[in-house]
Amino acid sequence: MSVRDTGQTGEMYESTPPRVTMRVWELPVRITHWVIFFSVIVLSVTGFYIGNPFISTGSDPRFVMGTVRSIHVVSAWVMIAAVMARILWAFTGNRWAHWDQFIPVGGGRRNTIGQNLKYYLLLRRDIPKEIGHNPLAGITYTVVYLMFLVQIVTGLALTGLDNPGGILSNLTGWVFGIGSIPAVRFTHHIIMWLTWGFVVHHVYSAVLVDTEEKNGLLSSIFSGRKEVERDLL
Fold first, then answer.
1. What is the number of domains present in the chain?
2. pLDDT in tens, 93-147
3. Separation of alpha carbons 51 and 182, rounded Å
4. How far, in Å, CA of 39 to CA of 82, rounded?
5. Considering 50, 118, 215, 222, which has the largest number of Cβ atoms within 10 A of its Cβ?
């Protein structure tokens, strides 16, 4: 917000920079975002059950476990498709979906990382304005997607144990050359909790920035549209 003189002594008024409403998040970005989110929920619940069965039933427990494992596997393939689609879109989408929004190769984005960090640490009052992801958020998403890839590989490797000599076993058996089966399972499990830690931070940050900037950030993941200051274009 800026303060301007009306031209008459002692009379001032406040104005905000002119804004335009524009579509920032394309449809593939929004779809993959929500598919991944709901997949994480289903995978977390079913994965937790697989590791620690908490349903008591009078029916054959093997049937319940088999059903849960089937849901887990199907959800995993859905998430794999969404993650791969989002990575592909990072090379074909618009400028705010592009990979350089996640890896700060440009000097301008690298220079604002410290400013964003100070804001999140409450050492800076105003947040540097960005149309898409700020560079610090972009780096965070890069780490999250690397976690997803590790989660995918370890999950496929563990699934391959059910069919030794099968396609998955042959493609991912090398994982057990790096770590034992318990270690791979632990890695797969701990990434789930790290992912939920990110989800909590992600929601907090989105609410914080939307409250500060009042730019429609929260609704933009549904509509794709944000209110953007003209001087950012």
1. 1
2. 999 999 999 998 877 788 888 888 888 787 888 777 888 888 889 999 999 999 9
3. 12
4. 9
5. 215
